[in-house]
Amino acid sequence: MSISKCLLGGLFYLSILVSCTGTKKTEQIEAPIVPMEDFFRNPTNAYFVLSPSGNQIAFTKPINKRMNVFVTKIGSGDTSQITFLTDRDVAGYFWKSDYQIVYIKDNGGDENFHLYAVDVLTKTQKDLTPFPKVNVQIVDDLEDREDEILIGMNKENAELFDVYRLNIKTGSLVMEAKNPGGVSDWITDHNGVIRAAVQSDGVNNVMLYRNDAKTPFKQVLRTSFKESVSPLFFTFDNKYVYATSNLNRDKAAIVKFDIANGKEMEELFSHPEVDVNMLEYSRKRKVLTAISYNTAKMEMKFLDAVTESIYKKLQNKLGTKYEIYIAGHNRNEDKYLVRTISDRSLGTTYFYDVAKDELTKIVDRAPWLNETQMCEMKPITYRTSDGISINGYLTLPIGVSSKNLPLIVNPHGGPWARDEWGWNPEVQFLANRGYAVLQINFRGSTGYGRKFWEMGFKQWGKTMQNDITEGVNWLVKEGIADPKRIGIYGGSYGGYATLAGLTFTPDLYACGVDYVGVSNLFTFMKTVPPYWKPFMQMMYEMVGDPQKDSVLLRDASPLFHVDKIKAPLFIAQGANDPRVNKAESDQIVEALKKRGVKIEYMVKDNEGHGFQNEENQFDFYGAMEIFLAKNLGGRILVKNP
What we know:
alpha+beta; Rossmann fold; 19% helix; 8-stranded mixed beta sheet
């Protein structure tokens, strides 16, 4: 019996998988080695967006290795390039009208994003926020106003984002709302009026509300940061809001909320296992359409017959092999962009004409990858020694026995995030090289309720790390992982977990790769971006207070325990990283060099928190491929590793 037939529903236990794989011998053909660049190269065409009228489609494609925006008129075949960036990719963009596109870009990974407008016809570019060391956020794109948008900027105070009304044609800025301190989210109604805000003093959240643009804000709800009511959007009459809430419950639910009086009215949907926080609606028809949430995979609950019918028609045309989702639509909601995706494919983008019930293929996202050579990402669950159920994913290389494999543990960043099922180029790259890849949603990960999240408070390097360790030991016990060939690789918090793994369990790992990870919790706390500073009290409660918890933080900081590291280590860092300062990597590299520990260190001067430019990604993953092959014996495409 093949591994794929051992699945029991969504989740499975490895004991089942192991017993199944041993029942019958079948001919196994190892997948060919796919060039590293094929996993990480820019897609030929990506990020398609329909214009408001639905007559044009914008998309990005690489020009001289940088993702730029192009526009094509549907049915004409005419395509024109409208951005001409050479230093960085377009980080994000949207149509403001059929003649204007707005995009954002930072400088060398510093995350101080500027907002630009480009005229589709003349290709004239304009930097709308030409201010040094200032970051911009989109508050409301004001869909019904062709020339205006609401943006947040920390122009007057680096720690606070005020709201400005921006005219994208003239560049004029008018302050719309002054940040009174600690406001992290501004919420507009369907008329584009700022009606609510979420404020924090670091440990408490305050919801502010006003009836109209001229009325002062008033406090309507105060909660601990552990509790939350997060407004999603106003009801269609602009009286109430739909929100996600974990008040008086463990798992966040979708609720209808009387924001003027700070009271929940009704629960629309909840799930017993996971948080639910995604609600969609039709702006044209003024109805709620669907709720989506992540268990082992993405699931949807339809709230509207029209939307459900569209998805059923798409599924009839595309089958059930891939996940299908609507990636965008025009203002009239009769023309859609549709995406397919799976764990083994970046899928395809389609154009769907509702009136004609006609689906037209636009492009495969990565046609150079053969999905039959990619590996299945399987949801898994295991129980820790203290009785906690941990979810994650296991990806095994195809064409080889699932016994005594070299293993890469890949803890996610955040740490207040979670791994999800789907296409992951890093996982596929590593599995193609012959490694089993384990992703773990350790305690402290989000999406599994408040209790599970709070279990990670002040547990960096402790029970959070123990969950990772026990996952590794579990795979060893099941005979899947070779105990002598285990590596750990992660970015951001995952980089910290890599250093913690090599430090606190030095006999477990044969090597580690730390990608922009934290090494010293004291210096990390001092070098965060200025707009994080209003939330430092919350960070102190979640991670540890440098004064009150100095012993805890020192005990959890790998830098102070480098004498325990004995496995080879590869560190990669962006020089302009605003979240995990370069000093985090410099410190531990210097300390290890003094001890004579073998270490490889890669720094990219034009990158920040993770490498974005294609050539830098190639350098990093190419070096990682060689490093892992040397220390774990995985496959490699180049000679003489």
